[in-house]
Design goal:
Elements (H helix, E strand, L loop, with lengths): L9 E7 L3 H18 L11 E7 L5 H12 L5 E4 L3 E2 L5 E4 L10 H14 L22 E5 L1 H5 L4 H11 L6 E4 L1 E8 L12 E10 L4 E4 L3
Antiparallel strand pairs: 1-2, 1-8, 3-7, 4-5, 5-6, 8-9, 9-10
Helix pairs in contact: 2-3
Length: 219
C-alpha cells in the first residue's frame, strides 16, 4: 500500500459497508434521485454507514491504517438492524443506530467509539456540516439517501421523502456488520460544494470476525 502524506486536499473516512443487497438498493436510490432531482452528493460515495467522515489529518496513510488495524483487532462482528427511514433531521436516511426495541445498538455504539478513540489523536479540527462522528454521543449511525443538497434546498425534503417512500423498496431489515473500510477523499475546495467534484479511493478493508478483525487486501 502506498503511504502518501495526508495533504490538505486529502481527507479520510472510515465506513461500515452494508451487505451486498443493501449496497445495491442504495446505489439504485442514489442514481434515481440524481436522475429525478439532480442530487449528487450521496452518489459521490460508495454505499456506506459513516463511522468517521471527511477527517483532515497530518498523519501518514500507513499510520491511519495501522491505527485502524490495531483498534479493530479485538472488535467482533455484530448484527445491525435497518429500522427504516428516519423522518427527523435535515437529510433523509435509514436508521442503523438502534435495535428493534428503540434502544441504541451496542455493537454500533462500541464500533463508533473504537473508531473515535483510534482516530481522535491524529484528527485535525473540522467544521463538519452536521454532528462530528468523532464527538461521542452526538452521532447516529445511518445510511444516507439524500444529504448535502437538502441543506441548500430544504423545501425539497418533503417531496423527496414522499417520492422515496412511494417506491415501496424494502432493504434487508438486518445484516451482519463485518466489513470496515478506510477511504481517501480529495477535493480542490472543502469549503465549497465539494461533493460535486470529489474523488475517492479505497485504501484498505478489515473483516470483523466473531473473535477478531482480519485485514483484507486493498482493492
Amino acid at each position: 500500500m502506498s503511504a502518501p502524506s495526508a495533504a490538505s486536499s486529502f481527507r479520510y473516512g472510515v465506513f461500515l459497508r452494508p451487505d451486498p443487497g443493501t449496497c445495491a438498493l442504495l446505489t439504485d436510490l442514489h442514481l434515481l434521485l440524481r436522475q429525478q432531482y439532480g442530487l449528487v452528493s450521496c452518489a459521490a460515495y460508495p454505499p456506506h454507514a459513516t463511522l468517521m467522515g471527511n477527517m483532515p489529518t497530518d498523519a501518514s496513510e500507513d499510520e491511519l491504517a495501522d491505527r485502524m488495524g490495531t483498534a479493530l483487532a479485538g472488535t467482533a462482528s455484530f448484527t445491525t438492524y435497518n429500522l427504516g427511514i428516519e423522518r427527523g433531521g435535515g437529510g433523509i436516511g435509514f436508521n442503523l443506530h438502534d435495535l428493534p426495541d428503540g434502544s441504541p445498538n451496542p455493537g454500533i455504539t462500541a464500533l463508533l467509539d473504537t473508531v473515535r478513540r483510534a482516530m481522535a489523536p491524529v484528527a485535525k479540527p473540522m467544521d463538519h456540516y452536521r454532528a462530528n462522528p468523532l464527538d461521542p454521543g452526538r452521532f447516529r449511525a445511518h445510511l444516507s439517501i439524500a444529504s448535502h443538497e437538502l441543506l441548500l434546498r430544504p423545501e425539497l425534503r418533503p417531496e423527496i421523502l414522499d417520492f422515496v417512500e412511494g417506491l415501496g423498496w424494502e432493504p434487508p431489515r438486518s445484516f451482519m456488520a463485518d466489513t470496515v473500510s478506510l477511504f481517501r477523499f480529495r477535493s480542490a475546495d472543502w469549503h465549497a460544494q465539494w461533493w460535486r467534484n470529489m474523488t475517492w479511493d479505497h485504501v484498505r478493508s478489515w473483516r470483523l470476525e466473531p473473535d477478531a478483525a482480519v485485514a483484507l487486501d486493498a482493492a
